[in-house]
Amino acid sequence: MKLTTVLLSVSIAVAAFSFSKPASANDQLALSLCEYIAADDKNRIRKALKTARLKMRNIYDGVQCNGNNLLRHAIASNASDAGEYIVKSIPKSALEDGKDLAWAEANHGGSPLIAVIKERAGL
Fold it and tell me: Of 45, 95, 103, 109, which residue is the least packed, with the fewest Cβ within 10 Å?
């Protein structure tokens, strides 16, 4: 009877540790994407996403850089190539609410990404 109890306890402990989520890989990817956007390096963004087997449209809502989403971070960093890549990679519906466009016009009126956002969103 004691052996069964010990085995059950050990298996529960192993299972608890086996399913703990390693956050470091996701945090590192997010940090790398933020750095690549700030450096306006579209190719490294694409490579990082491909290596991680992810698509921009799938991570766009979940990654924040300095409190901004990826597109706002690109606009604030004056990263036109990276920003254009982001605009073309995310679903059109993510731009149709106009929040990012309004933010860009209010804070960075001279950004070349404003025209790209308007074109993609159909505004």
Answer: 109
Residues pairing with 49 in the sheet: none
Q: What does R_g of the chain's alpha carbons equal in angstroms?
A: 20
Burial of 32 (0-12, 13-18, 19+ CB in 10 A): middle
Task: Please tell me the pTM assigned to this model.
Answer: 0.75
- Which has the higher per-residue pLDDT, 80 or 2? 80
**In Å, what is the CA distance from 49 to each residue of 1, 18, 30, 56?**
51, 26, 10, 7
Range of the domain at 84: 23-121
Q: Is residue 12 part of a domain?
A: no
Total domains in the fold of the chain: 1
- What is the CB neighbour count within 10 angstroms for residue 113? 24
- 59-108 pLDDT, tens per residue? 998 999 999 999 999 999 999 999 999 999 999 988 888 888 888 889 88
